[in-house]
Amino acid sequence: MKNGESITDFFSRIRTIVGQLHSYGEQISDEIIVAKVLRSLTTKFDHVVAAIEESKDLSVLSVDEPMRSLQSHETRINRSTEKSEEQAFQVKETFTNLGENDRSTNNDQGRGGFRGGRGHGCGYGRGRGRGRNDGQR
């Protein structure tokens, strides 16, 4: 199986190859086809392959049965991927909108426009070594 290839496309390609082999007079059992298909899947299907191998008898399994299991797993993967992409785009859009609002209410202060805080810089309190402390009497 190629990276990015869907299960439907993969099984379509397998059926084409098997059809060509049948036209050349080669007879391949479903058991061999299923075993080769399960071996050639990408790693994202490893746990599904293990479940199929453990729970089903591969000697009586048709080619369509693992295909249905793999398609349902692929659908589940795609659904969760789409949701996370949608959420990522929504977050990016929210931050983009917030950034535009912040720029419009900046009042052209530029850098260093913060005033206030905890009272530093007015000469009151403990001071910074510039003469006597105005806070002490």
UniProtKB/TrEMBL annotation:
Ranges of biased composition (kind: Basic and acidic residues): 67-86
Biased composition (Gly residues): 110-126
Renumbered residue ranges of the record's region Disordered: 67-137
Alphabetical list of PANTHER family matching this protein: OS04G0629600 PROTEIN (PTHR35317), RETROVIRUS-RELATED POL POLYPROTEIN FROM TRANSPOSON TNT 1-94 (PTHR35317:SF27)
Protein name (Swiss-Prot/TrEMBL): Uncharacterized protein
Gene: LOC107892676
